[in-house]
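Standup notes, protein team

Yesterday: finished cleaning the Fragilariopsis cylindrus CCMP1102 set.
Today: Hexosyltransferase structure.
Blockers: none.

Input for Hexosyltransferase:
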Amino acid sequence: MEWLDKDHNIHQMDTKKEHALLVGEQTINNDILWTDEPETYSGLPHKLRSSLIWLYKNVPHAQWFTKVDDDMIVRVGKLAQYLNSSQNDPQQATVVGDIIYKAAVRTDGKWADPNYGRAKYPPWPRGSSGYAVNRFVAKYVTEKNKDLFISQGEDTSMGIWMDEAPFSDTVNWVNSTVFNNLKICNDTNYLVIGHDLLSEEFRICYKGGVILKKTTSFWTR
């Protein structure tokens, strides 16, 4: 694993050193949430659920919560302005991002979902582009908690949670172009830049450079 210091120098690390750095970061800045969920790919839906519950209970004035991975860049101030200027009905579930429609449920490989009994997923937000949910969504996740169906991934799980909610017909799915997973960091219209950025690519992005675009995911709308 690699990490960048404040001067954008690349360092290699092992798991113990990584954990020690995370503990140090939390001690100094109090900006990491530790959960009891498994540190595995299949544990990500549980982590998403736990994070939204914690945020809903502990950040009472927040109206939006953004989900991104640690291999992405967020223009935090501009994204906050964008979301706060959006039409947000506090009594309606809203999901903003790169929304995927009618994706086939996989039967093999990393994304196999044997416990979900449908051929197609309901709408879900593409995680590699990042997405935001409003407080209404976090409230619902908090109230349902352990009753929520856990899919193979956290993002398809979000789609299923909204589909199985009593308000599923009124969920506001906002397909927004400010979220991208094509590593486009020189265009300031993109406020969340993913995905799978390498250390050197982070440095290029910080300097406003251009990264060769990645190919699109196999998921289709």
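Follow-up from PR in the comments: The two ends are 33 Å apart (CA to CA).
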